Amino acid sequence: MSDTAAMSVPRPCDLLVRADAAVTQDRDRRVLTDAAVAVKDGLVLEVGGQAELEAGYEPEQRLDLSGKLLLPGLVNGHTHLPMTLLRGYADDLPLMDWLEKHIWPVEFQLTDDLLDTGARLGCAELIRTGCTAFLNGYFHEHVTGQAVIDCGMRGVLGEGFFGFPSPLFPTAEDCWNTIRNLETRFENHPRLRTAVTPHAAFTVPPEELAASFALAEELDIPWQIHLAESPTETAVCLDKYGKRPVALLQEHGLLTERTTLHHCVDVTDEEIALMAETGVNVVHNPASNFKLASGMSPVQKMLEAGVTVGLGTDGASSNNQLNMFREMGLAALMGKVRAEDASAVNAQAALDMATLGSAKCLGWPELGRIEKGCPADMIALDLGFPNLMPVFNHVSHAVYAATGMEVCMTMVAGEVLYLYGEFRTMDVISLKTKAREAAKWVCNAAEK
Ligand SMILES: [Zn+2]
């Protein structure tokens, strides 16, 4: 008998959500039918059957999601949010050409106003496609932080830096103060955290990587880096340092539970074993890896070895979407081709990556589940869409059949951010105008 059923007097709660079914992603991966969730102070108070929770709670508000499937908010483990501004600007190019000739020259000219537009555009797309939290890496992260505060999402923000001079930071150490200030600025915010974010092992020298890791330890925040993204990166690392990327990090003591590695496409079986042993977290980015022809990450091997694997979209210019539903589908499909096994990276594994796995990669493990005591970050899929009928297995539909456009409700900390086509915390009309203006600026900046 549950807590509520044992009581005769209904307990107060802020909100009672009812849905046809709920994929909880709790420890037992329970999928409940005729489900209800009681919410109080932004947290899940109880998850159970509708009759049970209706009898046990007296809510201030109700949200009736008949015909809908409730899921935990998806967690995007890797993105560069303001890069929405560069969506579709330079496509169909190899990674190094794309970065050095097209992306970096424009990025280095971006202003705070433009970054603000890009970040808000990114938040709108994430909210619309059922993502409630993300791990970011970009420049002027206080701008993205303000966008996240305003729109009601959750974010872990990392000020990116290189080992070579950039307009923002003449040296890597020049970034340290910015990171400290970012951490101080958002220290007490319930929906914002920070992470130390060197760009990659081939763009930041090992000594500076180690120094930045010491800063992450001092501040007790995650340390994230792009790693082993392609065989080209491995060749550059071997040439510069005589070591493959994973071995280079290991040599400097940078493979730890605090570490989140983005991509890990070009990794050997021995490296996967080392990653499992050291407890590093990996974020898989299948669409970006496909688009930049970086290769196929051996995800099934990592899962079998016990590595924590999350899922991310990467930036909107190498994907070109921030849609975690498409990413889950691609993760499952790529996983099977890479492993040459149709049972590899099954639907539950893909959903686990996009929820519980990514949550660990953010250093925020209580996210990605609908469970008592966890943040009330939830989304709903409208099961009335033709592509979601009939239903045999809700997890299968979420991973293989849903496109993300069936998301009809997105909630963070008990606050509804999006409901039936309406953004409640964002002005998407003015965003459209700003996005058009930003596109003109990008075209001009590219010619400079
Ligand atoms: Zn990236």
UniProtKB/TrEMBL annotation:
Substrate binds at residues 107, 199, 229, 314. It comes from the Bacteria. Its EC number is 3.5.4.28, 3.5.4.31. The keyword RNA-binding does not apply. It holds the Pfam family Amidohydro_1. It is an enzyme of class 3 (hydrolase). Binds 1 zinc ion per subunit. InterPro entries: Amidohydro-rel, Deaminase_MtaD/DadD, Metal-dep_hydrolase_composite, Metal_Hydrolase, MTA/SAH_deaminase. Gene3D superfamilies: Metal-dependent hydrolases, Urease, subunit C, domain 1. Transmembrane segments: none annotated. Its cofactor is Zn(2+). Residues 70-416 form the Amidohydrolase-related domain. Catalyzes the deamination of 5-methylthioadenosine and S-adenosyl-L-homocysteine into 5-methylthioinosine and S-inosyl-L-homocysteine, respectively. Is also able to deaminate adenosine. Belongs to the metallo-dependent hydrolases superfamily. MTA/SAH deaminase family. This is 5-methylthioadenosine/S-adenosylhomocysteine deaminase. The lineage of its organism: Bacteria, Pseudomonadati, Thermodesulfobacteriota, Desulfovibrionia, Desulfovibrionales. The gene is mtaD.
